[in-house]
Backbone:
């Protein structure tokens, strides 16, 4: 199912955090959102998974205005991995994954066999079936992220939104998380810090700076040395991956500051 | 522990504890007498004229007191669970919102200065409840932001109000001319069920049952809220609206409960954690176990408060702490239980 963000604007306390952003992800595409810290990535994504109401503009999912759907109906179509996903109380992994079924369940309905099967499948699908009875807080960062992906998959969404899903993970887990997301076959919109990961995995990249989209397109057309200098203020070299030929970036250290 | 076994045990323990609450006390009545009076009270059966004083003790004093202890224990425990999820803080309890200390101001105005004398025996509960509502409005008005109620603001506002109201209460106690009034004010502040009668039961029980119904209805949403506002939103739960609902329910139930029993401490903090140690963090199980456990616990603590220094009475709040703290610390050390990652 495709998702379109249409002239979306967010103003909070007079500051325009997101300014007339328009972008889309076609069915099954993995679309990356990159930009420096404070550029508005998270604010934009918060509007998409409805933690924030935009000041203007719309998010359309399969052509329908997301914010006109009920919260439950919206959550049946779109799942998200926000950054705050840290449990204060020690839920088990199985309990966390079961929360993904919430938008499909009535408030007092019992958990159905179907719910249980979907949760088991989702957990097995991310290779975390053996963790089911573990406490979430006892897991490593990589395990946690896998479990949260399982929760999102148990939600049976058509679109998946992720906010920096590879933060604080070692390189193996970063690659694993993106592979899991890619293999889900869902339409994915993800904020990413690591430009090389974005270049490797994304079908389409949108670069956001100061709340505006400044470039969009396939990674190799968008991530030019000029853009990286303008937006991120870094000097980069473009190289081809020796085996796949995919674009990868090498960065120069900033010049040493004179010491007094 | 398997949940069905635990629930069955608690459901059995509750009526048994109520009977014990009616049977045990300063004046030694035999079990046979007590059961006969309880039966007479339940079925409207006849008793002899010389048995009226004993019957009154069992049916008019002890039983309503045990029932009220159950209601208060259930209410404080359930609201403790709700408030901890609402402010996403394992250290929170029903009193962190400042509602109870607000209620104390009203209660002390009655106890010390004889305010609202026209209401007779209702003056104390009414004043306590009204000032609890006032405190609730105040906390709500101050804590509210454009984004609704946020956890940290709620806790900070509630805590600040708590100190403010406590200052007023303490001043009143010092200003009291009669020592007896200060003593009953102190008793109220520590929590006591000594004023219990049947008239107090329906309102408190109604508020607690309505609160339990709402929380049971919201159990799955509470799970989502405990994971964070963003996650809750992504799961189709509006965290701002849910927190508003929880605030209203918690404030109303806390107000109704402290109006009849004063501020009985520690139950609302300890029982939710003890229940989590037994059945885990899932609010559907937690909200089944915590109220039952709280009810049974408070019945027994109240019995103890009546018998350890009989015929004198200890404030219940003193005993909940004296018994609760060591049990709690022991449980915490024995079990690999995580207090929000601490």
Residues:
């Amino acid at each position: 199912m495709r998702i379109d963000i249409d002239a979306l604007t967010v103003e909070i306390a007079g500051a325009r955090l997101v300014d007339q952003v328009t972008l889309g992800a076609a069915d099954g595409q993995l679309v990356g959102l990159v930009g420096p810290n404070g550029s508005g990535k998270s604010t934009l994504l918060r509007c998409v998974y409805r933690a924030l109401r935009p000041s203007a503009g719309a998010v359309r999912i399969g052509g329908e205005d997301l914010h006109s759907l009920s919260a439950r109906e919206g959550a049946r179509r779109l799942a998200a991995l926000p950054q705050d996903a840290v449990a204060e109380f020690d839920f088990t992994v199985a309990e966390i994954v079961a929360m993904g079924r919430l938008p499909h369940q009535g408030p007092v309905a019992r958990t159905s066999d179907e719910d249980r099967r979907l949760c088991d499948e989702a957990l097995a699908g991310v290779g975390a079936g053996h963790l089911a009875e573990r406490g979430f807080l006892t897991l490593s960062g990589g395990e946690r992220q896998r479990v949260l992906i399982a929760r999102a998959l148990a939600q049976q969404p058509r679109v998946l939104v992720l906010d920096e899903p590879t933060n604080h993970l070692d390189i193996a887990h970063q690659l694993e998380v993106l592979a899991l997301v890619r293999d889900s076959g869902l339409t994915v919109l993800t904020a990413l810090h690591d430009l090389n990961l974005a270049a490797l995995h994304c079908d389409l990249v949108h670069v956001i700076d100061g709340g505006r989209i400044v470039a969009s397109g396939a990674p190799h057309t968008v991530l030019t040395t000029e853009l990286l200098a303008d937006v991120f203020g870094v000097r980069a070299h473009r190289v081809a991956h020796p085996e796949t030929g995919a674009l990868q970036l090498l960065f120069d250290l900033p010049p040493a500051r004179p010491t007094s | 522990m398997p949940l069905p076994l635990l629930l069955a045990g608690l459901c059995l323990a509750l009526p048994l504890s109520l009977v014990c609450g009616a049977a045990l006390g300063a004046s030694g009545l035999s079990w046979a007498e007590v059961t006969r009076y309880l039966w007479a009270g339940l079925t409207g059966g006849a008793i002899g004229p010389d048995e009226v004083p004993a019957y009154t003790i069992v049916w008019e004093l002890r039983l309503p007191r045990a029932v009220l202890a159950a209601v208060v224990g259930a209410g404080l425990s359930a609201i403790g669970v709700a408030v901890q999820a609402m402010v996403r803080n394992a250290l929170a309890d029903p009193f962190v919102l400042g509602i109870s200390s607000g209620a104390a101001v009203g209660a002390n105005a009655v106890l010390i200065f004889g305010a609202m004398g026209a209401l007779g025996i209702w003056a104390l509960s009414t004043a306590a409840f009204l000032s609890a509502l006032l405190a609730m409005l105040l906390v709500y008005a101050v804590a509210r932001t454009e984004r609704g109620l946020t956890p940290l603001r709620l806790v900070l506002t509630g805590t600040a109000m708590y100190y403010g109201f406590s200052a007023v209460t303490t001043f009143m106690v010092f200003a009291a001319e009669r020592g007896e009034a200060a003593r009953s004010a102190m008793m109220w502040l520590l929590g006591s069920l000594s004023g219990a009668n049947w008239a107090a039961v329906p309102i408190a029980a109604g508020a607690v049952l309505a609160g339990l119904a709402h929380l049971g209805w919201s159990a799955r949403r509470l799970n989502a809220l405990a994971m964070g506002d963003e996650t809750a939103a992504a799961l189709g739960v509006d965290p701002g609206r849910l927190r508003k609902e929880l605030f209203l329910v918690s404030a109303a139930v806390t107000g109704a409960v402290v109006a009849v029993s004063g501020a009985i401490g520690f139950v609302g903090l300890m029982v939710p954690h003890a229940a989590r140690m037994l059945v885990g963090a899932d609010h559907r199980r937690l909200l089944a176990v915590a109220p039952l456990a709280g009810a049974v616990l408070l019945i027994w603590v109240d019995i103890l408060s009546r018998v350890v220094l009989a015929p004198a009475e200890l404030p219940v709040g003193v005993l909940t702490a004296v018994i609760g703290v060591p049990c709690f610390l022991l449980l915490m050390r024995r079990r690999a239980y995580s207090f929000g990652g601490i």
The first helix of chain A runs from residue 41 to 48. The two ends of chain A are 58 Å apart (CA to CA).
